[in-house]
Amino acid sequence: MTAGAAAGPRPAPLWGIRPRLRGRELGLLAIVGAAITVGSVALGATQRLAAAGDGTPSPATLFAPADVAILATYLGALLVAHLLLVLAGRRTDQVLLPAVGLLGGIGLLLMERLPQSLAGNLGGLARTQLVWLLIGVAIVAALAVAVRNDAWLRRYKYTWAAAGVTLLLLTFVFGRDVNGARLSLQIGPLTGQPSELLKVILVVFLAGYLSENRPLLVEESTRVGPLRLPPLPYLAPMVAMLAIALGIVVVERDLGAAMLFFLVFLLLLYVVTARVSYVAIGVAAFLAGGAVLYELFGVVRDRVNIWLDPFADAAGSGYQVIQALHAFARGGILGTGLGNGLPTIGGRPPIPALHTDFPLAALGEELGLVGVLAILGVYLVLIERGLRIAAAAEDEFRAILAAGLSLVIGVQAFIIAAGNLKLIPLTGITLPFISYGGSSLLANSVIVGLLIALSDRGREIKPPPAARRRFGRSGPLLGRAP
Known about the structure:
The protein has helices at 3-6, 23-52, 59-62, 68-88, 96-113, 125-146, 151-154, 157-174, 194-219, 232-251, 255-273, 276-296, 298-308, 319-331, 359-391, 396-420, 439-454, 465-471, and strands at residues 176-178, 181-187, 190-192, 222-224, 227-229. The chain is mainly α. The strands form two sheets. The chain has a three-stranded antiparallel β-sheet with strand order 1-2-3. The protein has a two-stranded antiparallel ribbon with strand order 4-5.
């Protein structure tokens, strides 16, 4: 090899990928790991003291995690996901993965706390939830690394919409009833709730359609008396698709998903047009539709009546809501501590469906008001990061898509939290990343993975040679992307 060849440029990294350190993400993951470990140790100490009775375990035994294998496996999965993002070398958001990791860890601790016989075919409730969490973390990392453009999403928006509605139709025809609602669809050995996937598909469709027609929706309007309505010819396809989805969901009695779809649609319409009149019309339509559903469907009437006065049937239909309120009251400001909540009654938790519909009530009892506010704060972080990604997007489709995806998680968390606190009628949706269940966790993992991919800021622009000589290696890089 000649001297000239030796002095030539360095070869490009394999496949053009250059690893990039993610210091903020690693630091936040370390905090998340410490918090989950402390929670696991506290839970383990409480459980061992209760099992020991009058005896006292040794300190080494007492202050050990509740389940070392579950803790190590979960934290190891988060670390592997971080390393994959480092190796990918993309300049993407570094807060979303730790936030999701913290929520998933809190949910995992709750599943360890509850009776393992509640659900699970893989050795108990906690181990089954761990499997779903591992798959979810893998989905987040895979989408964050592999999704390099959004053409495959925006190009086939009508195809995605048709596929989602078809899934719901199949659920209505072939689905299984769960507590009076036809929610689950089984295909071979797999069982899931198609409405969870539809919320992602709906946002993709809305992002594609709104980005194409935004100028007309903003600048044009149709006057009906004193009201200024959106231009109906351009709004009709979007409203028709949403009406079909909502109609099918209402027929299936999945009212939580119906509320989620409508609120996300309304919020996205406001984000795109900034017209308060559209929101007012949407709220009026929602209230009118709710009144009609109250008269037509007994399940809606029962949910509203329980919300208004759960003590009218305290031992029957209002039992869950009353017990949830008691749990929040017992928790107070600081909570009773992990594992110190109300003992099981007859081997079962005092609140039916605690692991799916009322996880916030259980956490409110053991972590108190401070813990509940911290959990809700993490959801606000997810929303803030998603809206930040939307604000920095290069085009309208990406901006609307990122805003819609983040709003899906935020609205879903608000609906279930408000239902647990008796602020709105209870619905059957899950608390993202905390409630037990596979389809919801995986769908929300798809959302977070797409958000991380959409946050990519491209390659970092190197400074001019003169600037490099002036500032050296540690100086500021001129031309750095914002």
